[in-house]
Design goal:
It contains ten helices and 18 strands. The chain is α+β, with helices and mostly antiparallel strands. The longest helix has 16 residues.
Amino acid sequence: MQNEHPCNARVRIRMISFSFRHVVRMLSARRLYTTTSGAGSVITPTHSIYLSTSTNPYFNLSFEDWLFRHAPQKEPLLLLYRDAPCVVIGRNQNPWKEVNLHAARAQGIPWVRRRSGGGTVYHDLGNTNFSIHVPRTTFDRGATAQVVLRAVRALGVDADVNERNDICVGGEKASGSAYKIVSGRAYHHGTMLITTRLETLGDLLRVDKDTMITKGVASVRSPVCNLAQFSENVSHDAFVNAVVDSFKVEYGVHDEPCIVNDTDNLAQIELPSWDWAFGQTPEFEYTIKKPFGWGDITAHIRARHGVILSCTLQGLDSELGKALEGKRYGFIEDEELGIDISGREKIVWAWLKEEMGSYD
């Protein structure tokens, strides 16, 4: 991890309290465990199919990355899992733009930055995630999408694939996809909405920040649906079995799934850290305006990697904007400003903290 900012301890405490408290200990880079061969059996990245029993998004996303880096490059691989409620953003996205942080905090639902690109998605136990890994030389987004499509159709749902290789039913999206290609390996992973709480999905992904301009990837908003709306045969277990069968046929695999848990020999990893969650945020600019009793104030904030580069305040004669430079966006304590604020400055500062989604 990079050298920590002086206030990093307070930052990490706030962030972890907002996340899962029980996920502070995570995956080891080399030793994982499976339930298929009894407690304490060391797992290897040489199986073809993995089913995770964990619902910890930090574990599952890290396990996926571990498989991606350690599995034989020339062999196909399938991972299936579910997560407890969380929001997952793409590697090159802006959490302040993509996630309704106020709603997420109110509901105690964390968000995680994954290692692949693409847009923001919502996970809960009504959603099943798939991840198909293949050699880069044979990687075809359409082909991997067809593996999942055949599984959905086998459950009696009349689905199809759109131009973005998303699984759709009746014009509404039931599955969103993202991809990662590194060296000789590639994967296609995605969600499958089965009985997801769509109202919660809408609340958490509905963000009204049109004046926030980011250099990162913006999500493409689409109407969504659950597969269970179209067939009584659809469940998590049924979908898992159908995807496993489709994967076996497509790639000539005969192995039985390897069942994995997250209970043993865990170690801290980067996903919950400020450096990864916020520090990976691409450069963005945010212009906001608010009328006060003495006149209008317009703030123009520019930040990169989660750190404020500049802040100009039109309508207020103050050093407040200058004092914010070099501070972590959304994580600024009053005492860190280095200046005394009172009166109008104090009122404006309270507004700015609210607009930046401060964790205070």
